[in-house]
């Protein structure tokens, strides 16, 4: 183990100037965090197989499948971290309650976090950081979401009246508060996907970005088709055999359309961007459907895994998050990963050419395409990202090789776990095949102009 | 007080009439309806049904020049210490951050009754009801907080021709009581349709801010890429009416709006302008100039596409009907 060196400012400046970004970013004493494996339940379109499944039931199922796969019954893990984007207030301790309902030791601590669609990846970043810092030796990162069992809130008017009435000390005061109720207050509020600050749905935001970058309908449909074909092939090849546990009678992602075609996708009517000058191009086929599901990933130190005879798929190398100014239209809502990735690559001394697999979350087909277009655009990369020139081109044959959210579906907080497990397995297989290290870049856009990105590398 | 003796923008001095408190808007509307009826009766103004019968006593004859009262109404001490709850209701409705700093739109609401009191005076030559809000210009020179004791004054000026009638500015100013420095000034431009000024000439510029838009055929204007969309429910006018006190019937319900020739209730112009101001966010700073020009009214319920974008030293904004490509309003917010 390397010894800790005092890091005086003078020596730090010298080392910054003298050494590469990669070595500077890895302070001495930090250990590796490795990905042991993952487990998820098949993802299901909203209102179908999982329509009566709660977030806790789904996450417990994903967790329990992971426990079974790696023999963790009774094990006290360092931490279980996860979350849900659409969450009932009663689920304030969703992940801890799931742990208590699992066969893990009840001495396993847990906490909930949330970063919109980046929740699952952010959980993996947290767990790997704790491992790398020596605070824990093992942990689970994951997430769950259900649109079918989403919380319905009461209107702001009813909520305020009920709160005032419950705070009232006398019957008269309570009646006075209740008398303020108006019929319109009784209308329930369903959770929306509208951005709170702009009132535009995520699809409308992406339609604006799509128009700005001139992404064609054909290119989006081709990417959607590839996603379905790749995911179908991965299922056929058995890739998901050790990544998925059946749930509620479902054994495969039920959004998958292996037999879809460009003709079928082209026949769909646009649903977003219909008021814009540019022809509307985003359809239900090249946008992610609302989905239910849950996922979990086991991370640990290599020593912890070895002591239990567990495999190690990959190293969770580093991560970078970003936020962009979308409120006044300066940047697209879902473009934050385009900002995060160059910073992540630079810190690790890497370029796009050093990446074997690009796992770019398909919130919409055009999200992937605008991100790739942005990295190829020299003006954008210099003006917006502060790079000396274009970041570069991505070989499309390396993108989402086993399909992504367009085909699998996207239960918001569960997507990160799905992608981390897939990426880890991909680099492990590639390294075993070639005898050379393999790397995957993970990129997930999220509401609020957020993005989380990470690098995993074969061990 | 003598240090800032009120005068119109062109320098004509104004007599000061001091009121003990800000008048209540409810009673002003009753008086406004009555005086609108009187003026309507004298001028056979269309579009004001159901308003109290005019007595026809003493209103100016149609051929005589219209003159504005040479009076500034003045309330020397307007307390704000008790306004926190009301301010927070306003801030929640307009999507402002909930703080104890009064946004420029809230000061407009605060001063609005005094400006309205000018318009319902017997010697104000135009009818309150049926007037069209064309534009607004506001300058906020620094933060005003809950607890500040304010002095408010209001008057009318700059009566001038408009293609469809006459327009007039209602000016309101806010200072901290006992302080000469202006902290807020608002100029609201209204159009009274069907009136004319005998002395109006071409070089007087019979223009209104909304005029260009009025002439542009629907659908020819090309909107920018939106940055947001407001979904305005049917109760938007009632909600802003409740918080602003401006319960003009055209904003309250489809039925009451129909009486004034609108197919449905319309959103308060100042509600839309204040939402745009809120959308600018912290970048506006503590002192800013905020302008708006109104075009087609926003029918309720309805969706308004908006673009609030950086421009020069500040921001510009525009709101439109996404389906029909009709501009509803546009304006600027510029830090001072």
Automatic annotation (TrEMBL), chain A:
Compositional bias (Low complexity): 7-26
Xref: InterPro entries: 3-ketoacyl-CoA_Thiolase, Thiolase, Thiolase-like, Thiolase_C, Thiolase_N
Keyword entries, A-Z: Acyltransferase, Transferase
Residues of the signal peptide: none
Domain Thiolase C-terminal: 311-457
Highest taxon of source: Bacteria
CDD domains, per database record: thiolase (cd00751)
Region entry Disordered, spans: 1-26
Keyword Acyltransferase among UniProt keywords: yes
Segments forming domain Thiolase N-terminal: 34-302
Family that this chain belongs to: Belongs to the thiolase-like superfamily. Thiolase family.
This protein's name: Acetyl-CoA acetyltransferase
Species annotation: Isoptericola cucumis
Lineage: Bacteria, Bacillati, Actinomycetota, Actinomycetes, Micrococcales
TrEMBL record, chain B:
InterPro entries the record matches: Fatty_acid_synthase (IPR003965), HotDog_dom_sf (IPR029069), MaoC-like_dom (IPR002539)
Occurrences of domain MaoC-like (ranges): 238-312
Name of a matching Pfam family: MaoC_dehydratas
Tree of life domain: Bacteria
Family note: Belongs to the enoyl-CoA hydratase/isomerase family.
PANTHER family: 3-HYDROXYACYL-THIOESTER DEHYDRATASE HTDX-RELATED, 3-HYDROXYACYL-THIOESTER DEHYDRATASE X
Name of the molecule in the record: Acyl dehydratase
Protein source organism: Isoptericola cucumis
